[in-house]
Amino acid sequence: MDTFWRHFQAAYRVTWPPLVLLAALLILVAWHAGTPVLHVWDEARLAVNAAEMLRSGDWLVTRYEGQPDLWNTKPPLLIWLQASGLYWLGYGMWAIRLPSVLAALATAWMIYRFGRYTLNSGFVGTFAALILATSPGFNGTHVARFGDYDALLTLGLTATVLNWYQYAQRRQPGRLWLGALWFALALLTKSAAAVLLLPALAAAALMQPDGRWAVGQWRTYAAIAGSFGPLVLFYGLREAAVPGYLAATWFNDWYGRFSQHVVTVSYPWWIYIQRLAFPGLLTWNWLLPVGCWLGLAAASTTTPKHHFAQFASLYVFVFLGFISLARTRLPWYSAPIYPMAALLCALGLEHLNKQALHQWHWPRPIVTSLLVTALLAPASVLLYHEQARWDAEKADPMLRYGYQLPQLLQVQPKIHTVSIVQQNQYQAALLFYLTALHEEGIQTIMIGTDTDTSSSKH
């Protein structure tokens, strides 16, 4: 058996630490992602959009209750992925949440590889990925493990930034066009939210000689302009299919969202900075100033890590500044900055680790124990908090359908008709579960609480 494993590892070059890291990331971002509860805002609305897209066969116009949806006017990339998931996996939570789970996993893996191969530090790459996966600002509400736009947006923007950074540092045109492709996908995910990358990236790039070189290249602007092509094409086709869409998206996603409140809740301008400090980075937050300090020291050193720390620090805080200027503010809008913040924290942790070992002469077992504790503490807190949230949701009347209706699909002998008391509230979650029941041939009779009348849905 030992001989077999030696030959297997030699033939396929099995490297166990990355596989262990990948397994840990998968557990952290996918834990309980398949639980039956469909969240009302905004996950349920997107699930209905996906279900109606699959049922209608119209992959251009998103619909809600059979009508073109002019409330959710985001581009359809996520809805396409969710509708495909419903087709292949059936009407369950994994079909709705798998795109976000995979996007979150890919983002963590991407910054691991960037730290390991671009910054030449397996320590930075490994801890950056684990910091990201244990940070509630990323692995929390509306982002990882939720069927919303922000995990997919974060993947697209992170890939764009890291590829364009490498384009500037290494003068590789291929990185420019690969970043442009990722930026196009980010625009097709959340349109205006993706555009906020450009001023943050420009401010960070102009502080470095290689960045100024990239800003002065004509092909940089050609790549950026080309990235908008798929979004502009979609806008044209969508408006031609159902006139009025451009006016709706201009208000919902662009000017209206920036100039006024388009949601029912209001947060102060400092919400993103407050959330980054806590609970966004959880127990890792004290490392962020250390990473930023390394960036400030970039003027006196030529090391790639210091220059990237300078770039990442500027990117994070300029991005936060721009989203803080918008009148519509929601905590998860800052999700795209967390991969860069995780890299900064990992750089700070590596610096302190080297100081402890080589300057302060701490025993290696003590340093290793502290690193393990630093990792286990946020992971435990995150999973405990998520478990408490799921337990609390069982008492939420707006989420009760998720604990009741999916169970009907498992009953034997099969149920053919079920009566449901419908309360006067936002019913996106109920609409999705009704579609799931109808796909299994179960007829539903809706009973209104006010009118006491019933109707059949087929």
Quickly describe the structure:
About 65% of the residues lie in helices and about 5% in strands. The protein has helices spanning about 1-10, 15-30, 40-55, 75-90, 95-120, 120-135, 150-170, 175-190, 190-195, 195-205, 210-215, 220-225, 230-240, 245-260, 270-280, 290-295, 305-325, 340-360, 365-395, 400-410, 430-440, and strands at about 65, 65-70, 415-420, 445-450, 455. The strands form 2 sheets. The protein has a 3-stranded mixed β-sheet, covered by helices on one side. A two-stranded antiparallel ribbon has the order 1-2.
Q: What would you call the quaternary organization?
A: single chain
The total strand number stands at 5
Shape: globular
Largest sheet: 3 strands, mixed
Q: What is the mean pLDDT? A: 89
What does this structure look like?
The protein is mostly helical and 458 residues long. The chain has helices at residues 2-12, 16-30, 40-56, 77-89, 93-118, 122-133, 150-170, 173-190, 192-195, 197-205, 209-215, 218-227, 229-241, 245-259, 271-280, 288-296, 304-325, 338-359, 364-393, 400-408, 428-439, and strands at residues 63-64, 67-68, 417-422, 443-448, 454-457. The chain folds into 2 domains: 16-34 and 92-393, no CATH class; 400-457, no CATH class. The strands form 2 sheets. It has a 3-stranded mixed β-sheet with strand order 3-4-5, with helices on one face. A two-stranded antiparallel ribbon has the order 1-2. It is globular, with a radius of gyration of 24 Å.
